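[Help] Beginner question about ligand-bound structures

Sorry if this is basic. My supervisor gave me a protein sequence and a SMILES string for fe (ii) ion and asked me to "get the holo structure". I don't really know what that means in practice or what format the answer should be in. Inputs are pasted below exactly as I got them.
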Amino acid sequence: MSALLQCLSHTPLKGYFDPDAAVVQEVDGLVARLRGEVEAFDPDVIYLFWPDHLNGFFLDTMPQFCIGMAAESVGDYQTTAGPLDVPRELAEACANAVVDAGIDLAFSYRMQVDHGCAQPLEELTGALARYPVVPIFINSVAPPVVRTRRARLLGEAVGRFARERGQRALFIGSGGLSHNPPVPQMATATDPAVIERLINNRNPSKEARDARQARTIAAAEAFTAGTGTLHPLNAEWDRRLMARLAARDWAALDAYRNEDITADAGGSAHEAKTWVAAVAAMDAACAGAWKAEERYYREIPEWIAGFGALTGRSD
Ligand SMILES: O=C(O)/C=C/c1cccc(O)c1O
Ligand SMILES: [Fe+2]
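Answer (accepted):
No worries, everyone starts somewhere. Holo just means with the ligand present. The predicted complex, written as structure tokens, is below.
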């Protein structure tokens, strides 16, 4: 089967609070190369594993996994608002196959996606709707969150489905690695307004969105200056995870404990489960016949990101 894998960190802080020009140029160069590879591959369909940040999924009902049969971008930070090109029948068939494989997942005919989905789509393909895309949400910010093993099983089920379909498939994992942006948690929230935003903050006003973005930028500035309270980045943790993914060391990957991920790499490092799912999907789609390549890693505090990239190509 002809398949391509691109796992890439995202960050909405690009363009708002940037590192040195040389680093921006380095990442721009990386993204341009990855996009060139996607264009050359010319996928029939993209399966995009993505984490939301309390922009489309809230604590009124938080699924662990959700597949979109139709989806639209909310346009947070610098991402574009508007519809994705979701092939409805394919997404429905994928959901059927995944549930039939024993992975319970929610589904949505009105999925709202944020930068966790829109940024990699725009960066890797040039537009929200350049290619048909099946968006697959993994809860990564609202505990309890799934273990890595469940993300692997989800990915494998999607990969087996893609293999049966036989289309040229691009698998994307968006997010991670170690990082801890200022996302409020129900366990520690005391302000009723914050609690209400956690439970339901769909379609906020422009002022509310701008205020949230300003809070994130201020947190990034303090983090970079060493005066913030955010969990530090952890390059060693990130590099080890990337090596295990590249080696498809499922025993080691399945053994990650959620409490260790939070303690070692920060609350939003759970986003790396999108990489686990995407690598597992690639592995199942190719029946193991593919090669992984670690493409990039750098700690970028300005972007609150252990920033990495991993590519896989079918043999
Ligand atoms: O949702 C937000 O407001 C911020 C999200 C964020 C910040 C920094 C790095 C990331 O990967 C994020 O998703
Ligand atoms: Fe994120």
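A couple of things worth pointing out: Residues 10, 51, 53, 116, 175, 268, 271 surround fe (ii) ion (ligand 2) (CB under 6 Å). The chain has one domain: 3-314. Feel free to follow up in the thread.
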